[in-house]
Amino acid sequence: MNRESSQNGVEWADVETSSEEYARRFSGEVGKYFLDLQTQITLELLTPWPGARILDIGGGHGQLALPLVQAGYQVAVAGSRPACQMRLSRLLPDGSYDFKVGDLLSLPMENKSFDVVLSFRLLPHLESWPGLIAECCRLAAEAVIVDYPDIRSINLFSRMLFRAKKAVEKNTRPFTCFSRAELLTEFSTHHFGHPLFRPEFFIPMALHRALNSGPGSRRMESVCRQLGLTGLLGSPVILRVTPESS
């Protein structure tokens, strides 16, 4: 956990993920593949709620806000600082989304203000990650969708491999890995369950970046998916949970 990502108990890890430098990690053919798959899975998980009111907590990176607006969803993005809107203002037309500034773990919004709450690129970088889960569940009436690095993958060796990963990705950050049981236990304390897990990649993203071949990455991951490796040991994972009463 970088000390720069929190201050006086307020988390603002989204400042880095909202930056242009961070966006460059998803440039080129390989980056496009990463974002295409993330968008595809997310839209599939949102199928039961067409046109829903969606809050994207820490979504200043714009990875989801843009395709969600294009798909007809009513999108609001919450950022910890006004600067987190800079990329969004370049990517999206004025009036096509709402932007809220506040403490991401205690937003000034009423309970169940949104149909669905998303949070991507944030959970593993927060010191108070249970607080993010609590806030997502408080604000969501129908579903919460998050992404996270799963310990049941090559991330099991993440501490040993971090230096090699940083040599490839340069601006990578330390992150927390989670087990499925750990997250489900936390969500269950807020009465959310019925999980759907959608692992994204079997091959580590850092290796895909090192190989730098979009078509090659697509082919390799297609084979891994067909062999069942991605479902078993893939990461990051996109997780959707819904209220236990639903």
UniProtKB/TrEMBL annotation:
The keyword Iron appears for this protein: no
GO biological-process terms attached to the record: methylation
Protein name: Class I SAM-dependent methyltransferase
Coiled-coil residue windows: none
Keywords for this protein: Methyltransferase, Transferase
Lineage: Bacteria, Candidatus Eiseniibacteriota
Highest taxon in the source lineage: Bacteria
A GO molecular function held by the record: S-adenosylmethionine-dependent methyltransferase activity
Domain Methyltransferase type: 55-140
Keyword Transferase: yes
Transmembrane spans: none
